[in-house]
Amino acid sequence: MIVEPVQGRAGARVPPAGFLETLRGRCDDAGALLVADEIYCGLGRAGEMLVSGELADVVCLGKALGGGLPLSAALMRPGLEGVWELGPEDVYTHTHSGTPLACAAALVVLEDVPKLLPEVKRKGEIFARHGWHGAGLMRARPGDAAKALANGVIVVPAGLENELISATPPLVISDEEIEEALARLEGC
């Protein structure tokens, strides 16, 4: 079973409380793996290092992991190491192998993001007070992305029919920058 613990492009959709735990139980009952796609929502974006916590058998990470450099990872529950057997040629030539620079950036991300989580949650509440739903700094609300751009704010169209605008600002955005962006987005 593959799940996005907080849906990104669908509009920062947060499942109801207990959803992931229920899904974990159903996977256990069926003998299925639970794979959490946290490429968008993981590593602090939704206010937690991993939204799925320790519930998933496999967690897919990307985007934020490399701190701006291309890098992805699949974290696997102990005992699943043999799922992806690499041959000696794969270790050095595999397309998805992390470069030393991207891996060094990931080490910084993994050290610094946990320190930012309380602020990410607090800043996310600023968005919530202005009618944005979601978690942490992964937010969406009804709106028009073209109007937002015309007002000087880049947002991502989201929702099933692009009826939403999605904001995923840097985790280190200041309160002043948030307030300015929200003011510019009024009426969009």
Helix and strand layout, with pairings?
Elements: E1 2-3, H1 19-30, E2 35-37, E3 58-61, E4 73-76, H2 88-93, H3 100-129, E5 133-135, E6 138-142, H4 145-150, E7 156-158, E8 164-167, H5 175-185
3D structure, described in words:
This protein has 2 domains: 2-87 and 95-109, Type I PLP-dependent aspartate aminotransferase-like (Major domain) (Aspartate Aminotransferase, domain 2); 116-185, Aspartate Aminotransferase, domain 1. The mean pLDDT is 93. It has helices spanning 19-30, 88-93, 100-129, 145-150, 175-185; strands spanning 2-3, 35-37, 58-61, 73-76, 133-135, 138-142, 156-158, 164-167. With 188 residues, the chain is an alpha/beta fold. The chain is globular, with a radius of gyration of 18 Å.
Could you say what the CATH topology of the largest domain is called? Aspartate Aminotransferase, domain 2
Reported CATH architecture of the largest domain: 3-Layer(aba) Sandwich
CA-atom Rg in angstroms? 18 Å
CATH class bucket of the largest domain: Alpha Beta
Q: Structural class, from helix and strand content?
A: alpha/beta
